[in-house]
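INFO  loader      accepted 1 record
INFO  loader      residues=287
INFO  predictor   begin
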Amino acid sequence: MKKAIGAALAATLLFCQTVFADQPTTVLTELKTGKQVTAEVPFIDGANDEMLQRAANSVLNNAADEVADKIGKQGTVTYEVTLNRPSLVSVLLKGVNGSRTYFRAVNIDLTTGREFDLDEFFFRSEEREALLGKNTENVLFTEEGIAVSEKKGAAYDRQFSYQELLPLARIGDIGRLLTVWKLTEKSDGKTLAVKQGDLFAFKLNANPSTGYQWIHTVSGGPEQGLIKTGSSFMIPNSQREQVGTPGVEVQFFAARLPGTYQLKLNYQRPWEKANGIKECNVTVTVK
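INFO  predictor   done
INFO  writer      dumping C-alpha cells
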C-alpha cells in the first residue's frame, strides 16, 4: 500500500512539473501608499527558486522607491509589463507628479535574481553601436524588440525590432528571449511556416574530422530575407576526449523578411564537385 501511495505521489509531482514547465512568469501588484505618494509595485510569485524570487522582488521594490524619490515622493508610481518569458520579465515603471514624469526600465532575469541588459543576448560591436547608439544603459526589453531612452528618466521612445538585432545575437542564449523552432534532417521535403523575426535551428549529425560540412543555400524570397546567424558543434560528454568523434551541428537561421524560401542543406566536402552524401531541403514560408 505504501509503495502504491509513493508511486502515486511521484507521478503527481512529475505531472505538476510537466504542467508548470516553461510557463510565463506571474506578476502581481503590491499597492503601497505614503503620505503623498501611491505606488503600484510589481511583485513576482511562483518562480522555481524562492531565493532568486526574493532577490528579484527586492530589485523591483528598490526601483519603485527610486522612481518615487525622483518625483519628490509625491504623486503616483505605476508600471507596465513589457516582456514576459518563463525566466525573463521586463517592466516599465512610471512616476508622475503634476507635470513631472520619470521612467525606469527594469529587466529581471529569474535565473540570477538580477537585472539583465543587452550584453546578455547581443554582442557588443560597432554594428550594435551604429544601430542603437553609444548610450545603451537605459534599455527596455519588450515583446517586439528593444526600446531605448536618450537619458535616465526619459521616455523609452526609440524602438528597434528584434529582427534588426538578429545578426548580433548570442546564439546560445537568444532562445531564452525569442522563439526558436527546432528541426532535424527528418524535415526534408516539408514546409516550415514562421513569422517575421522568428529563429529556427537545425540539429544535424556531423563529423568535421572527415572533411564533410553542412553547407546551406537559400533561394527565393527577398535578398537577405532568410539568413544564417550562427552555428555550433557538440559531441557527447562521454566522448569529448576522443579525436574524430561524431556529434551534432546546430545551424541557426533568422526569418527577417516575408516570403517563400527554399533552404537546402548539403552534407559535402567543399572542395569536391560531386553532390554531398546527405541532403535536407525545406520550404520556409515567412509571414
